[in-house]
Design a protein that fits this description.
This protein is of the alpha/beta class. The protein folds into 5 domains: 2-204, no CATH class; 213-365 and 610-701, P-loop containing nucleotide triphosphate hydrolases (Rossmann fold, 3-Layer(aba) Sandwich); 381-421 and 464-586, no CATH class; 710-901, Rossmann fold, CATH 3.40.50; 924-1096, YaeB-like fold (2-Layer Sandwich), CATH 3.30.2310.20. It is 48% helix and 16% strand. It has 45 helices and 32 strands. The chain has a 7-stranded parallel sheet with strand order 11-12-10-13-14-9-15, sandwiched between helices. A hairpin with a 5-residue loop joins strand 19 (759-761) and strand 20 (767-769). It is globular.
C-alpha cells in the first residue's frame, strides 16, 4: 500500500480512489442509486487509450460503493476488535487530509454470533473506527463520537500494530493528545480495497508511463494476425535453430490431441514474431484439457528461455496451472531439481494455503528467499562447508587424533572431579579439631594435583586449538543457518556420543563425523542448484553438484558397511571412494558470482528478474510494475481470462516489455463477479476475452472433451457450443459407464424433481431449500453405504448457486467432509467456487421452488454451464420442475430435454428419498403439504393410506427426522399388507367397538403408531383404506379410544363389518373392494355375522 516517501508528503497508492471512499457520507453509502445516473455502458470499441481507461473509472467507483453498501447490510457479522492505542504519525500527519495514525489492536477470537472468526488485518482493509459495536449501519450515525472511516496501510508486530490513513481526525485523540483507554474504540472491518486500488492505479497512470503495445491492439476490430505474417514466415524459414526445431518436433510427437497441438504450435509461432504485437485467444470449453495445454505451452517456452508471466483470477487457478507446469517440467528434467529456479510462484502464502502444496514449495518465492537470505547474508557459508568436508577427507587420521586428544582431556578432568568429590566427602567426616594440620596437608595435595593437571593441559593445548579451528568451520557459521530438523538430528547424535563411555574406533569416528559435515554440505548442494537461477549455476556446475551429492551419499553408505561388517578389502574400497569423493568436491566452485544484496526485497527482485516463468494472480501482477525489473517480460499468459474484468486484466498487459498476450478461457462459463447491478448493466464484469470474441476475434477451439460421460456432455454441448465439441475416446469407453447406486434415477445423467420443496431466506438474505438438503443427505448416505460395501473410491461434489444452501448442506454432511483420510470424499461448494473443478459424481441443487417461475441469477446461462460440466461419471440435478419450466430460462430447456431423453424422475420413486422429504417437511412444519402427501409416499402401495391431521401435528411437535423415517418405514410395510404376528400385537381388552377396529404398533420405546381401517367411496366402489390416526405414548392411547368410541358408534353395521373384513393374499392382508350396486348381498351376509358377534359381546341390543 505504501509506495514511496518524499520530504513533505507521503505518497499512498490509489489515493484518488481512497479519497472518493472517504468523501462518502453514511447516507451516500446507503443510497443504492448514488451513481445510477453517472455510470454509462462501457463501449465495445474505443478511439484512444485515454478513452479506454476512462470508461472503466465510474463503474469501478460504483462497484466499490456497492461493495461497501453490501457490507453495511451484514455489519453485525463483520469482524471487529478493540483498539487499545491510537497515536499520530507525526512526521506524516498534515492538514487538510493527511491524517496518518498508528493504532494498536487487542486481537482476540470473537463469538460466532458476532463474526465469522478472528479479524486478521491486511493492507487495504477499510475499517470503521467507532465507540461501539454496531448492530446495524444506522448505529454508526448514532455513536457518541462521530465514526471514522480509515484504510490500513501497514501491518506490523504480529497483526497488532497498524498504520492507517483516516478520513478525518480521530476526535478522542485530537482532544486528549494521548493514548486512548482500552475498550473506548473499536475497529470494524468493512471491505478490502487492494485489487480496486491496483486497477485504479492502472487506469489513472499517465499513458506515457506504461507499455501500451497490447492495449492498443484491442481498441478496435483491426486485429493483428501474426500467423499469416509474411515477414515472420520468411524470417522463420531462414532462422530455424535446432533447439526450436526440437521443440516443434516434441510438440508434434506429444500425447496432446490435434486441437491442443495446434494451439501450442500457434502460440510458439506468435512468440517468434518480434515486429508486431498481438493477442492470441484459446477457447477451452469444460473438460477439453485447457490446463494440460497451458502446461505444455509453458514448458516449451521454458525450453526456449522465453520470459513469460502466467496469471489467473484466483489463487486456486494459479496453483493449478503451476502444478501442471511443474509436473510436465519434472518429467523431462535431466539434473534433479536444477532449473526450478527459473520458475517463480509468488503471492500471499496464507491465502494460497501453500503449506498444503509441498510440491510447490521449491518454486514459491518466499520459501526460496528464506533459503537465499540465509545463504547470502552468512559470509562464505558454502565455502566453509565445502572446505571443511574436503579437509576432513584429506586428513581423517589427523581428525581422529584430535578426537582422541579431546577424549584424554575429558577423561582426565572427569577422574579429577571424581577424586575431589571423594576427598571432599572424607573431609566432612573428619573431626574439626584436626583442622590446621589437615588443612596444610590438603593444600599440598591440591598444589600437586594442579601441577599434574596443568602439565597435561599444556601438553595438548596446541592440538586443541587446531581442532577448534576445524570445528568452527564445520559448525559455527553453517549451524546457525541450517534447518531446525538438521540441528535436532545433530543434537541427538551429540547426545549419543556423550552417552557412549567407550572410545570410538577409527571407523566409527569416520562414520559419525562424516555424517555430520556431509549432511550440511548436501543441504547446500541441493538448495543451491534448486534456488539459484541457471544464469548463475551452469548446467555443467549443476551436474558436478549432483555428482558430489551422490558421491557423499555413496561414501556414507560405504562407511556404514565398513563399521557394521568389517569386510575384507574394505580399506582399499574406502581409500578409492575417498579419493573419488575428494576429486568431485574439489571440482565444485567455492563461490557463486551473485550481486550484492542489502535486504530481503533485493533477493526477491533478483529471483524475479532471473526467472523465466513467473506465476501469480492478475491482481498481484501489479507488484511487478512497482519492482522496476531490469529484465523485461516477453509474453503474458492469462488463464481463466473470461472470468476477469477487462480493466483488471489490463494490469499485467501493461508490464514493461510485453510483446504478445495469450488469453485462455471460455466466455460461455462464469464471468467475473460484480456486486453492483448498475455496474453489471454497464458491462463492468465483461472480460477482454468476451469482448474480443463478440467483435469476431479469431479463437482457437480445443474441441475434444475428456471429462464427462457422453450423456452428461450432450446438453451443454448442444446448448452452449452448437455440438462443436467431440467426446474423447476415454469417455466413450465402456469403463466410463460407472454406476454407484441402483435404479435408472442414478444413471449417468438425471433430473430429479423435488415437487414439495420450500425456498426460504437465511439471515444473510441468501436462499436455501431444506427439502433439497434432506434429499442430498439421503443420496450421499446411500453412496457411502455403497462405498463401504464395494470399497470403490468415489469423489462427490455438491454444487449450489446459493451460499445459504452450500452452508446448510455442509452442516448436514460434516461427517463425510471432515474425514480427509477417507477414500470417500465430499466437497460442497458454490457454482463459482467449483469452476475448473471436477468430481466423479456431481449433485446439483437448484434451490428455487415457487409458483411464479422466479429463479433470479440462476437464469444466467454461464452459471448453469459451469455447474453442469463438473461431473465425470454421474450428474444428478435436483430441482422443482414446475418452477424451472415456468422460468423460461435455460432451465426450462434442461427439464424438457431431460423428459425427452427419459432422464426425468420424481424423487418419490426412491422410497428413501420420499421418507427424507416427509421428514424435512415435518421439520419445516409444512402441514399444508403433509396433509396431501399420502399420494406421494404410497403411490405404488397396495393399500391407500390416509392421514388424520392429528398425526402430522404430533410429528411436527416431535421434530425428529429419525423417528419420522421409522414411522414411514412402518407405514410402508402396513400399506403393502404386512401385519404384526398375533403374538406381537397389542390387543385392546374391553367390550367396546374400538377394541374391534383400533390398532397400535410400537415404533420405539416411547411411542406407538395408532391406526385403523376405514371405508371410502371411490368411483362406484367402496374400498378399505388404511387410516393413520396419531403417534402417541401408551398412556395417551386410552384417551384417544374414548374419543373414537363415539365415532365408531355412529357407524352403521355394514360399515363396521367392512372395516373388520380381512382379505388374505398369502401372508399379506390386502384391501377389499365392494361394488356399490353388486355388494348388497355380500354386505348383508357380513352384517349378519358381525351383528351376531357383537350381540354375543353385549355391545348391541338384541
Amino acid at each position: 500500500m505504501e509506495t514511496a516517501e518524499v520530504k513533505k508528503e507521503r505518497v499512498v497508492a490509489g489515493r484518488g480512489l481512497i479519497d472518493f471512499v472517504f468523501s462518502w457520507s453514511l447516507t451516500d453509502v446507503l443510497n443504492s442509486n448514488f451513481y445510477k445516473y453517472k455510470v454509462w455502458k462501457i463501449p465495445m470499441t474505443f478511439s484512444t487509450v485515454t478513452e479506454y481507461k476512462r470508461s472503466f473509472i465510474l463503474p469501478l467507483l460504483e462497484e466499490t460503493h456497492a461493495d461497501l453498501l453490501s457490507c453495511m447490510a451484514s455489519l453485525p457479522q463483520a469482524p471487529s476488535c478493540e483498539i487499545i492505542s491510537v497515536k499520530r504519525i507525526t512526521k506524516d500527519y498534515k492538514l487538510p487530509k493527511d491524517f496518518f495514525y498508528s493504532i494498536v489492536l487487542k486481537l482476540s477470537k470473537v463469538k460466532k454470533s458476532d463474526a465469522e472468526g478472528t479479524y486478521k488485518p491486511q493492507c487495504g482493509d477499510v475499517i470503521a473506527i467507532t465507540d461501539t459495536k454496531p448492530k446495524s449501519a444506522g448505529d454508526l450515525g448514532r455513536s457518541k463520537i462521530s465514526y471514522v472511516i480509515a484504510i490500513v496501510l501497514g501491518v506490523q508486530d504480529n497483526l497488532t500494530r497498524l498504520s492507517i490513513l483516516s478520513s478525518k481526525p480521530i476526535l478522542l485523540v485530537e482532544d486528549k493528545m494521548k493514548d486512548i483507554k482500552s475498550g473506548t474504540l473499536f475497529a470494524i472491518n468493512l471491505i478490502n480495497l487492494t485489487t480496486n486500488i491496483r486497477i485504479w492505479e492502472e487506469l489513472k497512470t499517465n499513458v506515457k508511463d506504461h507499455n501500451l503495445n497490447i492495449i492498443q491492439q484491442v481498441l478496435q476490430t483491426n486485429f493483428v494476425d501474426v500467423e499469416n505474417c509474411s515477414i515472420c514466415q520468411h524470417h522463420l524459414k531462414k532462422k530455424h535453430s535446432s533447439a526450436y526445431s526440437n521443440i516443434i518436433a516434441r510438440i508434434r510427437s506429444s500425447e496432446l490431441n490435434e486441437s491442443q497441438k495446434s494451439a501450442v504450435l500457434r502460440c510458439i509461432d506468435t512468440r517468434e514474431c518480434h515486429h508486431q504485437n498481438s493477442v492470441k485467444m484459446i477457447w477451452g470449453p469444460p473438460g477439453t484439457g485447457k490446463t494440460k495445454t497451458i502446461g505444455f505451452l509453458l514448458h516449451s517456452l521454458l525450453k526456449m528461455n522465453c520470459r513469460t508471466l502466467t496469471c489467473a483470477p484466483t489463487n486456486t487457478a494459479v496453483l493449478e496451472v503451476t502444478e501442471r507446469l511443474l509436473k510436465t517440467a519434472k518429467e523431462s528434467m535431466e539434473y534433479d531439481t536444477y532449473s526450478l529456479a527459473d520458475i517463480v510462484l509468488f503471492g500471499n502464502g496464507e491465502k494460497m494455503k501453500i503449506k498444503d502444496h509441498d510440491e510447490l514449495l521449491d518454486v514459491f518465492l518466499d520459501h526460496r528467499v528464506d533459503f537465499l537470505e540465509k545463504f547470502f547474508f552468512s559470509s562464505s557459508v558454502w565455502e566453509d562447508s565445502l572446505i571443511s568436508t574436503i579437509s576432513f577427507l584429506e586428513h581423517p587420521e589427523r581428525q581422529y587424533g584430535l578426537y582422541l586428544t579431546n577424549r584424554r582431556v575429558k577423561d582426565y578432568e572427569e577422574n579429577k572431579d571424581k577424586k575431589n568429590e571423594v576427598l571432599g566427602k572424607g573431609e566432612t567426616n573428619r573431626n574439626q579439631s584436626e583442622g590446621t594440620s589437615d588443612k596444610s596437608s590438603r593444600d599440598k595435595k591440591d598444589k600437586k594435583g594442579n601441577k599434574v593437571s596443568n602439565s597435561v593441559i599444556v601438553e595438548i593445548l596446541k592440538e586443541k586449538e587446531e581442532k577448534k579451528k576445524v570445528e568452527d568451520m564445520l559448525s559455527l557459521k553453517a549451524e546457525k543457518k541450517q534447518p531446525k530438523h538438521e540441528k535436532e538430528k545433530e543434537k541427538e547424535q551429540a547426545e549419543g556420543d556423550k552417552k557412549c563411555d567407550d572410545f570410538l574406533t577409527y571407523e566409527e569416528f569416520m562414520k559419525k563425523r562424516f555424517g555430520c559435515i556431509s549432511k550440511r554440505l548436501s543441504f547446500y548442494i541441493v538448495n543451491l542448484h534448486t534456488h539459484l537461477p541457471t544464469s548463475f549455476v551452469s548446467q555443467q556446475t549443476a551436474k558436478k553438484m549432483i555428482s558430489a551429492f551422490d558421491s557423499l551419499k555413496s561414501f556414507q553408505k560405504l562407511l556404514d558397511e565398513v563399521v557394521s561388517r568389517d569386510k575384507p578389502g574394505g580399506c582399499l574400497k574406502f581409500s578409492v571412494a575417498r579419493t573419488e569423493c575428494l576429486e568431485v568436491l574439489k571440482s565444485l566452485p567455492q563461490n557463486f558470482p551473485v550481486p550484492e544484496f542489502h535486504d530481503r526485497w533485493d533477493i526477491k527482485k533478483f529471483c524475479l528478474e532471473n526467472a523465466c516463468l513467473i506465476f501469480c494472480t492478475v491482481s498481484s501482477s501489479a507488484k511487478l510494475h512497482a519492482g522496476g525489473m531490469s529484465n523485461a517480460l516477453e509474453l503474458v499468459v492469462i488463464d481463466e481470462a473470461a472470468q476477469i474484468k477487462e480493466c483488471e486484466s489490463a494490469i499485467p498487459l501493461q508490464l514493461p516489455g510485453v510483446r504478445h498476450a495469450i488469453l485462455i478461457g471460455d466466455e460461455k462459463q462464469l464471468p467475473a463477479t460484480v456486486k453492483s447491478k448498475i455496474s453489471e448493466e454497464a458491462a463492468f464484469g465483461r472480460s477482454l476475452f468476451e469482448r474480443l470474441a463478440m467483435l469476431g476475434h479469431k479463437k482457437h477451439l480445443l474441441n475434444v472433451q475428456h471429462r464427462m460421460h457422453p450423456s452428461i456432455s450432450l446438453f451443454p454441448n448442444g446448448e452452449f457450443y452448437q455440438y462443436q465439441i467431440l467426446d474423447g475416446p476415454n469417455v466413450k469407453n465402456q469403463s466410463y459407464n460407472r454406476r454407484f447406486l441402483r435404479g435408472t434415477m442414478y444413471d449417468s445423467y438425471s433430473f430429479i424433481n423435488i415437487a414439495h420443496g420450500k425456498e426460504e431466506f437465511d439471515n444473510k438474505h441468501s436462499l436455501k431449500n431444506m427439502v433439497e438438503v434432506a434429499v442430498i443427505s439421503e443420496i450421499v448416505s446411500s453412496l457411502h453405504k455403497n462405498f463401504i460395501e464395494t470399497k470403490e473410491n468415489v469423489t462427490i461434489g455438491i454444487i449450489s448457486p446459493y451460499k445459504a444452501q452450500v452452508y446448510a448442506i455442509q452442516e448436514n454432511l460434516k461427517i463425510y467432509s471432515d474425514d480427509d483420510s477417507s477414500d470417500f470424499t465430499v466437497s460442497v461448494r458454490s457454482v463459482d467456487g467449483f469452476q475448473g473443478g471436477e468430481e466423479d459424481v456431481i449433485i446439483m441443487s437448484t434451490v428455487r421452488c415457487n409458483g411464479n417461475g422466479s429463479v433470479g441469477f440462476l437464469s444466467n446461462s454461464q452459471r448453469a454451464n459451469a455447474g453442469l460440466t463438473r461431473a465425470r461419471y454421474c450428474l444428478w440435478i435436483l430441482g422443482n420442475a414446475e418452477t424451472l419450466i415456468r422460468s423460461g430460462s435455460i432451465w426450462n430447456k434442461l427439464v424438457l430435454d431431460a423428459k425427452k431423453r427419459r432422464c426425468f424422475h420424481n424423487a418419490e420413486e426412491d422410497k428413501n428419498l420420499a421418507y427424507a422429504i416427509a421428514a424435512a417437511l415435518v421439520d419445516l412444519n409444512q402441514l399444508n403439504i403433509l396433509l396431501n402427501i399420502d399420494s406421494i409416499l404410497f403411490r405404488n402401495a397396495r393399500w391407500k393410506v390416509c392421514f388424520d391431521d392429528a398425526f402430522w401435528r404430533s410429528m411436527v411437535r416431535v421434530k425428529n427426522n429419525e423417528l419420522c423415517k421409522q414411522v414411514l418405514s412402518l407405514l410402508e410395510k402396513l400399506s403393502n399388507g404386512w401385519r404384526q404376528p398375533q403374538k406381537g400385537r397389542n390387543v385392546i381388552m374391553h367390550d367396546k367397538i374400538s377394541s374391534q377396529l383400533l390398532e397400535y404398533y410400537k415404533v420405539n420405546d416411547q411411542l406407538y403408531l395408532v391406526w385403523t381401517i376405514d371405508i371410502i367411496q371411490e368411483n362406484s366402489n367402496h374400498i378399505q383404506v388404511l387410516k393413520v390416526l396419531d403417534i402417541l405414548p401408551l398412556s395417551s392411547i386410552a384417551e384417544l379410544e374414548k374419543q373414537l368410541e363415539i365415532l365408531f358408534k355412529s357407524y352403521q353395521l355394514d360399515k363396521i363389518s367392512r372395516c373388520k373384513y380381512k382379505c388374505n393374499d398369502g401372508d399379506l392382508i390386502v384391501p377389499m373392494r365392494w361394488s356399490i350396486s353388486n355388494g348388497t348381498a355380500e354386505a348383508n351376509r357380513v352384517k349378519d355375522l358381525v351383528s351376531k358377534a357383537l350381540a354375543a359381546l353385549g355391545l348391541i341390543d338384541n
